[in-house]
Automatic annotation (TrEMBL):
Chain coiled-coil ranges: 21-90
Entry keywords, A to Z: Coiled coil
This protein's record includes keyword Coiled coil: yes
The keyword Coiled coil belongs to this UniProt entry's keyword annotation: yes
Superkingdom of source: Eukaryota
Protein name in the entry: L1 transposable element RRM domain-containing protein
InterPro entries associated with the record: L1_C, Transposase_22
Species of origin: Mugilogobius chulae
Amino acid sequence: MADEETPGWARQLLAEVGDLKTSFEQRLDALNNSVKDIKKETRAIANRISNAEKRISDLEDGNACTSKSLKSLTEEVKNLQTKCINLEAQSKRNNLVILGLEEGQESGNPDKMIIDLLRHILELSDNDPVPEVERHHRSLLPRSTPPDPPRAYLVRMLRWSDRQKILGVVAKRKRLVWEGKPIRIFPDLPVEIKKKRAEYNDIRKRLRGTDIRYGLLYPARFIVTIEGVKHIYNNAAQATVDLQKRLPKIFD
């Protein structure tokens, strides 16, 4: 009787509500499962992030130690390089480098050639004693052929004072000629010092021909005397900036 008393539309509505409930329950179950999966993946991602943060922290700590060690090693290498350059400079303390000496001039009797050359440079007579030479030879490069310049000739004086005496005479002479060819004589220095000294070439070129006294101090400092006052510079950039202010007409 109850079914007969329930209208058809009510029964249909109840059936549709039941179907809708079933559909919602199925969707909620699927949503719950998705949420569980998301939570599981989130926990996994959180664990991976935590592990990554720990590894990054360890790497940063290790990098800090490595940077400290690298800085210490770099400083040590720099000090060792400086010591090596100084040792090389000391080993060449008595050496002279002669440029422009024609290939083959030392053939036959090289000892006589170098003695005659020193007599010529120092303007000594045949009876004057010649500074003692410990050894002398060409640079250990393949023999040059024209038009390439001749190889440098290396001379090691027995005494440092004789080496300085020769350099002093050379500094006063504007031009040296031997066997009809111009020659130049320099102290023998390590390559690193030569490069640093070469940085002053532009400044020296500007000062050449003026009445301003200038020169180089060991290892690679530049000294200029302006109005009786000496100015010493540790590098070419510093010298250029200061001399532009002091000598604007020359360094314009």
